[in-house]
Amino acid sequence: MKKSVAVLGLGIFGSRLVDELVDLGADVLIADADKEQVNHYSDKVSYAMSADLSSPEAIKGIGIENMDAVIVSMASCLESSIMCIMIAKELGVPRILAKASSHRMGDIFLKVGADEVIYSEEDSAVRTARKVLSGNVIDYFSFNDDIVIVNILPPAEWVGKTLKQLNLRAGYGANVIAVKSGDRLNARVDPDARLKKGEELLIASEQEDMNRLLKKLNK
Length: 219
Known about the structure:
The protein is of the alpha/beta class. It has helices at 12-23, 35-41, 56-60, 78-90, 103-112, 125-133, 163-166, 168-172, 207-218; strands spanning 4-8, 27-32, 47-50, 69-72, 95-100, 116-119, 137-142, 147-152, 175-181, 184-186, 200-206. It has two domains: 4-133, NAD(P)-binding Rossmann-like Domain (Rossmann fold); 137-218, Alpha-Beta Plaits, CATH 3.30.70. The protein has nine helices and eleven strands. α1 (12-23) packs across α6 (125-133) and α4 (78-90) packs parallel to α5 (103-112). It starts with a strand and ends with a helix.
């Protein structure tokens, strides 16, 4: 099922995040006080609106209660970020992420209801988009513009099947380079072993191929 994500705040990070989410096929809602920036994205996303994100009433009127995740990307505006997080929590949004400019700010965001904090020096918009869209993605590493490695939990439809049966290499150009079970990481991958629930896979591929695989997991 396609995931719905709201991005509140369209600065440099938020804008890049929206671009990535749209490319990955997400159902995206955006909101920002800057009408010009909102209009720029209005034809690319599902919902676009100009709103005062420091106002509880305005935030409640956006419709974020229907989203799978909300990403608050206004690290430069502490008051608005806190308000968006608190309202999203109040409305029962399942997953709330917030961008912070410092660990002290991040601690505040966690205390008022954020489930996860994004630090610009540690997390890129690209990495965040992929982690949000697939609940199976634990971490995402980009080595250059071409090669990526994803740490992923196998989706339910993969459990009980072998890597040979899944044939990820042929379908997505993806190579499983290691399997982690508990604390044990095994680089000697048995293509005939059946995948177990809770095992982690390290998958390497080219960027374009990984995008196709993550889109598949997002459906």
